[in-house]
Write a structure and sequence with these properties.
The protein is an alpha+beta fold. The protein is built from four helices and three strands, in the order H-E-E-H-H-E-H.
Amino acid sequence: MLKILKRTGISGVPVIKNKKLVGIITRKDLLRKPEETQLGLLMTPKPTTTTPDTDLREAAELLVKHKIRRLPVVESGP
């Protein structure tokens, strides 16, 4: 997976289970424990998220407040 992220220039991807966001995995996570093969043990679980109707200022505030670089946009509902 690290090779794919590096080749594509992507630094992190969402981890989805049963159509729900359960975490985020980054290149840094993969490099931290290169021998680990289970994404669930490497990913950041329950990431901070926002919704499609969140305004830009609020999204920026979440990034700063939580000291994060990725803010998945998810729709609530079924």
